[in-house]
Design a protein that fits this description.
Elements: H1 15-29, H2 33-45, H3 47-54, E1 56-58, E2 67-69, H4 74-89, E3 93-97, H5 103-117, E4 122-127, H6 141-150, E5 161-163, E6 166-169, E7 174-180, E8 193-197, H7 205-211, E9 219-223, H8 231-237, E10 242-246, E11 259-262, E12 265-268, E13 295-296, H9 298-307, H10 310-318, H11 331-340, E14 347-353, E15 359-364, E16 370-372, E17 387-392, E18 402-408, E19 414-420, H12 425-438, E20 443-446, H13 451-461, H14 472-479, H15 497-512, H16 521-527, E21 530-532, E22 538-540, H17 557-572, H18 590-606
Parallel strand pairs: 3-9, 3-10, 4-7, 4-8, 8-9, 17-20
Antiparallel strand pairs: 1-2, 5-6, 6-7, 11-12, 11-13, 14-15, 14-16, 16-19, 17-18, 18-19, 21-22
Helix pairs in contact: 2-3, 4-5, 5-6, 9-10, 11-16, 12-13, 15-17, 16-17
């Protein structure tokens, strides 16, 4: 381990008492080489001890303490330890942050500690332009390093060899270098650790991301979000790299008076804060995105008013990449559903089936393709009931997944989800038919456009008849075994702009009224990526991806599958048309008398 000791536990972390601690340490070490050697050893053993005892920070926006001790609060301490862990493990780390959380200062301070106490380390810093890497501006990375060196006591300074974009500790040969971004940034040489500062703003982000993989095993990506078409957003969706979130509500000052408006009432989370009697709590539920939707404080309320833009709030405070869009689905409702109803699948596994699309049994396996939110009977099959299904088809080349959703008609619950980016349409059709038969011949609807045509053709070849046809009443007739000719209409759902708008409108209403209860958190989260286009129709804000073979990019496929599944359930619940009762002729009219005598003669003959 790099930071083996816990000397920092003796350091007061209150800004008021921390200053007194520093004064005592400085006084003990003044003109006392023995104390100095002891403190230097403690610093080398414990990064947090060094930072909280000797590092200072500059904040020109503070009303009184523009230069003050750097005292990392609890979440910052966790972030520092996480960075040190990743250096030991030789793994990358993502720091997803709100503005003004000190993330860059944290990383730069750790780099300073490495260079000061660990020989032969080499750290590399990258930002989007040269002025932000090394310049006279206090926003530059090397300026922060120089500031730390300037405010240290003389006996702790290393007096480095300082050049443009370069700082070397001549005592132990540890080096810090810097570079502004181009497509080849960070490619030359090797490094112990690398900082990618404000990575979402780097123009050549995907190229830099891929080219730096050979430079170091430990890269720290620090940024706020700037939409969904960035390499930083793509990294944040990946499960391969650990993500650390620095949210404004973790800041001890910004979180004062923390509250949330939910279920029609204000719930004050910070019980120690006294609100003014005339304080106007915000109850409109917006903005509502990010990792902590709906959480507010007086600081947050003030910042929302000052920024005057929901997009700015979403990016700078909420850590909400979707917030820059005019969203189609109400984020307040979606986040409420995610909190109260989303949960991990009850069962995961794979359905075994033959070439004809007939199920052979369910094999339970963690991480399996089939996710179930229902229980199985003693034979390992779904409980006998009526089910609906919806599918959205991809090419099966990894760019986006083919998705299949099943719902239980009796309750409107989503009971099954399948998402795979490696099944071709023909293969996915066979799997879909097997699952539909397994779910007691669920009625299936799929998007007919593009690869959906090949999918639908294979469905018909497999002789599966419980499918949606273009005419709504025909699907209703098939559900209730009416003798309507299936060859009068084409199978599958056709996504014209008006049809798509109607489909998603109805799905949004079903979610709002809980007529379709979706327990898949990933599926609910995908709804937040749908926005209104210039024509006022919903579309998915597709993410940018340099390598489309990676199956990590979604295009709202789960949403379309869920919407089609919800549509099928609405057909099942559609009330049957009652046949109009034939009204007989008026009593004692000529026709009434004729019918009366005819019926009487018929009864006498039968007798």
């Amino acid at each position: 381990m790099l930071s083996t000791a816990k000397h920092y536990e003796e350091v007061p972390m209150s800004p008021r008492y921390n200053l007194g601690w520093r004064n005592r340490i400085y006084a003990l070490c003044k003109d006392n080489p023995e104390y100095q050697r002891g403190i230097i050893e403690m610093c080398s053993q414990d990064c947090l001890f060094y930072l909280s005892t000797f590092v200072w920070q500059y904040n020109p926006d503070h009303p009184t303490r523009r230069v003050a001790p750097f005292v990392p609060w609890k979440r910052q301490q966790e972030c520092i330890r996480k960075i040190l862990d990743k250096i030991d493990q030789r793994k990358d780390l993502i720091i997803e942050k709100s503005r003004y959380q000190g993330a860059t200062l944290i990383v730069v301070s750790v780099f300073d500690w490495l260079q000061r106490f660990h020989p032969w380390t080499k750290t590399h810093m990258i930002s989007r332009k040269q002025e932000l890497v090394d310049s006279v501006s206090d926003d530059s990375l090397f300026w922060k390093l120089d500031f730390i060196e300037e405010w240290l006591p003389d006996w702790l300074k290393m007096r480095p060899n300082r050049q443009s974009m370069y700082r070397e500790n001549t005592k132990n040969r540890a080096i810090i270098t810097g570079e502004s971004t181009t497509g080849k940034a960070g490619v030359g040489g090797r490094a112990t650790i690398m900082l990618m500062d404000e990575f979402a703003q780097i123009r050549e982000d995907f190229e830099v991301l891929h080219r730096t993989t050979e430079t170091t095993h430990c890269r720290i990506f620090v940024s706020t979000h700037l939409g969904q078409d960035t390499a930083f957003y793509t990294l944040c969706q990946s499960e391969a790299i650990e993500k650390f979130v620095l949210h404004w509500s973790d800041h001890p000052e910004q979180a004062r008076g923390l509250y949330v408006y939910e279920n029609g009432k204000i719930d004050v989370l910070d019980k120690t804060y006294s609100f003014p009697d005339d304080y106007r709590f915000v109850t409109d539920g917006k903005p509502t995105g990010g990792p902590k939707p709906g959480v507010r404080s007086p600081y947050y309320d003030n910042q929302c008013e000052r920024k005057g833009s929901s997009r700015a709030v979403a990016m700078d405070l909420d850590i909400d990449p979707q917030g820059s869009m005019s969203q189609f689905f109400d984020p307040l409702i979606i986040n409420s559903l995610r909190r109260h109803f989303a949960c991990p699948p009850y069962l995961e596994g794979d359905l075994l089936y033959d070439e004809g699309g007939y199920p052979l049994g369910f094999e339970e396996r963690r991480g399996g393709l089939v996710k179930l939110w229902c229980n199985l009977d003693s034979q390992g099959n779904p409980i006998v009931d009526v089910y609906g299904a919806g599918a959205d088809i991809s090419t099966g080349e990894g760019a986006s997944p083919s998705c299949l959703s099943f719902g239980l008609a009796a309750t409107g619950d989503k009971v099954c989800e399948v998402a795979t980016s490696r099944h071709r349409p023909v293969d996915f059709a066979c799997l879909s038919v097997a699952l539909c038969r397994w779910f007691h011949n669920a009625i299936l609807a799929w998007e007919q456009a593009g690869p959906g045509y090949t999918f639908g053709k294979r469905i018909m070849e497999l002789a599966y008849g419980k499918v949606y046809y273009k005419k709504d009443d025909l699907a209703y007739g098939l559900l209730h075994n009416h003798s309507w000719a299936a060859n009068t209409d084409k199978p599958g759902w056709y996504p014209s702009p008006s049809a798509k708008r109607l489909l998603l409108d109805n799905y949004a209403k079903a979610l709002t009224k809980k007529q379709y209860l979706n327990r898949s958190d990933q599926a609910l989260k995908e709804t937040l990526s749908f926005k209104y286009n210039d024509a006022g129709n919903p579309e998915h804000a597709a993410e940018k991806a340099e390598d489309p073979s990676q199956g990590t990019v979604n295009h709202g496929d789960r949403v379309i599958a869920d919407a089609l599944c919800s549509m099928m359930l609405s057909f099942i619940h559609r009330p049957k048309k009652q046949e109009e009762k034939k009204q007989g002729p008026a009593v004692l009219s000529l026709q009434w008398r004729r019918d009366f005598h005819n019926n009487k003669e018929r009864e006498e003959e039968e007798a």
